[in-house]
Amino acid sequence: MAKLPRRAVLRGAAATAAATAAATAGAGPAAASGGSEPTVKQPITTNIPRGQDDFFDPYYNVIRGRVPASYHPWVSNRQDRILLYSRTAGPRHAHLGPALAAGLNPPLTAAHVLQNAIVKWMGEVGVGVDWTEDVTLMPGIGSTYKAVVFGSTSRDTLWKHGTAVQPAAAVNTTTGAHLDSAKTALRQYMRAGGGFVGIHNAIGGTEYNWPYYEGLCGGTQYYDHGAHQNGTVVTYAKDSSTRGLPARWDFKDEWYNWMPVPGRVKWLLGVDESTLATRSNTHPGHGRFHPLSWCQYYDGGRSWVTALGHDSAAWTDGSGYVGQAFFKKHIVNGILSAMGNLPFCS
């Protein structure tokens, strides 16, 4: 499989993007196939599926990329239901509305635009949605959710802030001092064949200091963006989540820049930078290849992410927002593919 050295990006973002595009273009179906998804549990031994070791990423200590054979069908009773998680521990996008109360499915108001949209859109295709901003409810081993959707989360969203710990004790098991238990839960959920969806700020400002999460998002982090402005989206590949999208379509967003450039993923959407009025004040941009959506298998599970979705109107049916119908189709089919209800990253 043609792939870049993990830190080749340090030689320059523009050069790396060009090399990534060339590597992707040069990889034939056999190089990118990575086998097929198993349908039953397989013993974990040293006899891993043929060629799967080629997809091991030593930086994140996981197998990741376009490698369906690495999927873990370990939970047999997953339901057509997802968990929407939108907790913010820093900046909060307007489309999230005010912080939600603790617990599962707290009351939503009209201001909770993203949450209402995902509940409605997934309901239209027969998928149930639970929603929460309660970090203690992160699903883990054996969860029956087919996917967990991180909607514009920010900063240390998986840290249980404010839990009392006795200063004199390094560990106090009487106060719930395992403050990052949600990280363990998410990792175990993925390793059991869970689905992860990251939307907008979920790959643009979440868990900066947790390498596992960076890898889950494609081996990248948001760096900066230009103005909220019109641009032209480019559909890079045929996929369940790009089905019905034209080769080029107009949209309005913040057009995130990345550092490092994502790698070992299937590119889905990008932006034509020549259609943007501004890029940023510092980042040089990515030139002719500027990705925005991608997918990969990760540590036994499926991961699908998109940087699109800044404006509340993009989440509002009938708003007249440029490209809204295409955006909706991309989000719904992306979630369905991460759930396994549509072919994933094929």
From TrEMBL:
The record ties this protein, via PROSITE patterns, to: TAT
Annotated region described as Disordered, given as residue ranges: 27-49
Q: Which positions make up the signal peptide?
A: 1-27
Record flagged with keyword Endoplasmic reticulum: no
What is an example of a Pfam family matching this protein? Answer: ThuA
Please provide the record's keywords in A-Z order.
Hydrolase, Signal
Q: Which organism is it from?
A: Paractinoplanes toevensis
What is the protein named?
Glycosyl hydrolase
What GO molecular function annotations does the UniProt record carry, in alphabetical order? Answer: hydrolase activity
Where does the ThuA-like domain lie? 123-335
UniProt superkingdom: Bacteria
